[in-house]
Design brief:
- The chain is an alpha/beta fold and about 260 residues long.
- It contains ten helices and ten strands.
- The strands form two sheets. An eight-stranded parallel beta barrel has the order 3-4-5-6-7-8-9-10, surrounded by five helices. A two-stranded antiparallel ribbon has the order 1-2.
- The longest helix is centred in the first third of the chain and has 14 residues.
- The protein is globular, with a radius of gyration of 17 Å.
- The structure holds phosphoenolpyruvate and manganese (II) ion (MN).
Length: about 260
């Protein structure tokens, strides 16, 4: 069978430090991109104090235009390491290039493969050779079968800790950046044991929609959320329309805890 690892060996619960994804509702929060040490430190302290379990700490950014901010790159890993140790919070780092996997592995607690790389099979296999949990985001136009096959690529290399992340797909709807396919959560739960989280930020494309989509994601049975938070979102170097302010994140966490 094509999905033998996904179907037979998938881990239901994945431990990252004190956090158990698949058991406790897990919040991954942080900026779209690491811009400076102060920006990451300030955000890390705030999101941790307000209940986030993991910090987004992205140093390689997959941007639609080659002239947009590309992230701090390898130099950014030093910043991430310092902030992670100072704040004592596990970090999620996206990797774009198979050649960077092992350097990222040196700092990351969780490695992310983003939507645009969901079918980068060389990258999936290299990440599969690490022993760090992997957040695998759904491709922009990926079917659920293609997504699970991407998970199989990682797992077939021996890394069984894959967390799926629904982040919206391309449809004819133009009022949101992508269409958040929340039905994928119960569908995936029926098909496999892998934990499923939801990223409402990239799906919505605007910060005012993040709260309702987050609540719906929790209500439908997801294992957690990934949300973008920035100290000064309007002036962020990427995704400035969708990142939450600190106040909005605090409010979101209070509302989620009531559910
Ligand atoms: C991200 O999470 O930083 C990101 C780029 O998201 P996506 O791959 O879902 O577009
Ligand atoms: Mn972003």
């Amino acid at each position: 069978m094509g999905l033998k690892h996904v179907l037979e060996k998938g881990k239901k619960e994945i431990r990252i430090g004190d956090v158990e994804i698949g058991k406790n509702f897990t919040i991954v929060a942080g900026p779209c991109a690491v811009e400076s040490k102060n920006q990451l430190l300030e955000t890390a302290l705030f999101v941790k104090a307000n209940g986030a379990h993991l910090l987004r700490a992205m140093v390689f950014k997959p941007r639609s235009s080659p002239y947009s901010f590309q992230g701090l790159g390898i130099d950014g890993l030093k910043v991430v390491k310092e902030v992670k140790e100072k704040v004592d919070i596990p970090v999620v780092i996206e990797v774009l290039d198979p050649r960077d996997v092992w350097q990222v592995d040196g700092v990351a607690d969780v490695i992310q493969v983003g939507a645009r790389n969901m079918q980068n099979f060389t990258l999936l296999k290299e990440v599969g050779r690490t022993r760090k949990p992997v957040i695998l985001k759904r491709g922009l136009s990926a079917t659920i079968e293609e997504w699970l096959n991407a998970a199989e690529y990682v797992m077939s290399e021996g890394n069984l800790e894959v967390i799926l992340c629904e982040r919206g797909i391309r449809t004819f709807v133009t009022e949101t950046r992508f269409t958040l396919d929340l039905a994928s959560v119960p569908v995936l739960k029926k098909l496999s044991d892998l934990p499923v989280i939801v990223d409402p930020s990239h799906a919505a494309g605007s910060r005012d929609l993040v709260k309702p989509l987050s609540k719906a994601s929790k209500a439908i049975g997801s294992d957690g959320l990934m949300v973008e938070v920035h100290p000064d979102p309007e002036h962020a170097l990427s995704d400035n329309k969708q990142q939450l302010t600190f106040d909005m994140f605090k409010e979101l966490m209070l509302e989620l805890n009531k559910l």
